[in-house]
Amino acid sequence: MKADLIKKIGWERYSRKSLRRLNNLHCCGYFSSEDTSEGLVLVTGFYGSLEEECFVKLFWLLDSSDSSIIDAKFQAYGDTALLVAAEESCVQVIGRKVVQTKLINEDKLELALRDYSNKPSLPTEKRYVFAYVVQAIQEAHQRSLALVESSIEDKDPQLLPNDFKEKAFDKQWPQYNKQQKLDMIELVLDEDVRPYVAMDGGGVDVLDISKDDEVTISYKGNCVTCFYASGATLNYIQQALVARLYPNIKVVPQF
User: Fold this and answer.
1) How high is the pLDDT of residue 60?
2) What domains appear along the chain, each with residue ranges and CATH number?
3) CB-based contact 207:251 (threshold 8 Å)
4) Residue 57, SS3 per DSSP
5) What's the rounded Cα separation, in Å, for the pair 78 and 49?
């Protein structure tokens, strides 16, 4: 019965990541001037209209000292797919510098919401919502530039988010079997790594894990030829797995 209902509504055409975003709309809401304090700036970006039955408004709280987005929320009216895209956009920008938001486009949002199986994030006829969200992002980006230091445009955008100093590793890790460890690694990559490398057209596959917790990975897409694949990106992947899973994990890329 449940399967029939899911099929009738069409949820099976959404990726699992998209459904997860829809069921956990942590960023739905808004900020006002009362949410700002010394050093914080509120910036908004808007696109769409009631006549179109599709509009989205983004709210970013900026730290004016370093141009980073410390929090983001959205309000939206339209198809449920718009909620998915708007939620993902907020997740993507939190913790990033304003200059990094110019790298976000429709394709990168869509890729970030795909499952590991590479299943499309949304039904084809609903993917227009990405254009609305990206237009709102671009407006917020332009408004942000006028409110923070102009020097941020000269800085090299780094796609990877903040570190994991506040994370706590899994103390039960040594007790898990190989398949359990691989499943947990996949989950961490899905949540903390793949959305970011996907935004630059890249990907990461897990090939194996040894008894000594050496994780062998391979890169896909733009990551294969990326200068950072054996440096910053690799360090970030290991940092994520060590923080979330176990300190002895070592990541080795296979080129």
Assistant:
1) 96
2) 2-154 (3.90.1010.10), 173-253 (3.30.300.130)
3) no
4) strand
5) 10
